[in-house]
C-alpha cells in the first residue's frame, strides 16, 4: 500500500551494555549480552557467535540437484543435505569457500556460480549468516586432487535428484536440513522465473559477520 515501508530487513542494533563469552568452542562461542532496549529495559540474551557458512545447490544439465546424506549428531539423524561448510577462514570470499566445499564433499567443480538466497539460520539464538549459491556447468575433480574425507563425512552418500522431486520431498516433510529446504525452494522459484532473480556470485553480503 502507498506510504508503507518496503519489506526489507533493516540493521538496527540496540546498545550492548555488557558482553561475556560464556563458552569458547571449536567452531562457535556462546556469548551473553546485556542489551538496553530503552523503554523495554535491560535484558540478557545468550546466543551462538558463529562465523557463518555457505551452501551449494549443484544443478546438472538434466536439472537434477545433488543431495548428500550425512549423520548429524544433535538431532540423531542422517539428513539429506546440499553441500555446505563453514566460513572459518578469515576474509575468505564466499564463492571460494563454496567451491572448496563442493570439491571436498562432492568431488565436483562448477564453471558457473550465482547467488540464490541469503538467510539467518536461527536469528533468535545465533548470528549465523548463510549464503546459498547455485552451481552449474559441473565437472568432476580429477582423482589425484580429491579430498580425503573423515569423521561424519567419511560415509557420505551422494544422490542426484530431479529438482521437482526434491521440492516435493521438502513440502512433504521428508527433508529437514535448512540449507537444503531453503536452497531447493529458492532454486525452483528462480527457475520458474527464468533465473531472473539470481545475483552475481560476488554480490554484497552485509549480513555476514564482518561483512
Automatic annotation (TrEMBL):
Entry-linked PROSITE patterns: NUDIX
Domain of life: Bacteria
GO biological process, alphabetically ordered: nucleoside phosphate metabolic process; ribose phosphate metabolic process
GO molecular function: hydrolase activity
GO CC, alphabetical: cytosol
UniProt feature coiled coil, ranges: none
Protein name per Swiss-Prot or TrEMBL: NUDIX hydrolase
Annotated organism of origin: Cellulosimicrobium funkei
Lineage: Bacteria, Bacillati, Actinomycetota, Actinomycetes, Micrococcales
Amino acid at each position: 500500500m502507498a506510504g508503507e515501508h518496503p519489506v526489507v530487513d533493516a540493521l538496527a542494533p540496540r546498545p550492548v551494555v555488557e558482553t561475556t563469552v560464556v563458552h569458547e568452542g571449536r567452531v562457535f562461542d556462546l556469548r551473553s549480552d546485556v542489551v538496553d532496549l530503552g523503554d523495554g529495559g535491560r535484558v540478557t540474551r545468550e546466543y551462538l557467535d558463529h562465523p557463518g557458512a555457505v551452501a551449494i545447490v549443484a544443478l546438472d544439465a538434466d536439472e537434477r540437484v545433488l543431495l548428500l546424506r550425512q549423520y548429524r549428531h544433535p538431532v540423531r539423524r542422517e539428513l539429506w543435505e546440499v553441500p555446505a561448510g563453514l566460513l572459518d577462514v578469515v576474509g575468505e570470499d564466499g564463492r571460494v569457500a563454496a567451491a572448496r566445499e563442493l570439491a571436498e564433499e562432492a568431488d565436483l567443480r562448477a564453471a558457473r556460480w550465482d547467488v540464490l538466497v541469503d538467510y539467518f539460520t536461527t536469528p533468535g539464538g545465533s548470528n549465523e549468516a548463510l549464503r546459498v549459491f547455485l552451481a552449474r556447468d559441473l565437472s568432476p575433480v580429477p582423482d589425484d586432487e580429491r579430498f580425503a574425507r573423515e569423521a561424519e563425512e567419511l560415509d557420505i552418500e551422494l544422490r542426484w535428484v530431479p529438482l521437482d522431486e526434491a521440492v516435493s520431498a521438502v513440502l512433504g516433510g521428508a527433508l529437514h536440513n535448512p540449507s537444503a529446504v531453503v536452497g531447493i525452494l529458492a532454486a525452483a522459484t528462480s527457475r520458474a522465473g527464468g533465473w531472473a532473480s539470481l545475483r552475481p556470485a560476488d554480490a554484497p553480503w552485509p549480513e555476514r559477520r564482518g561483512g
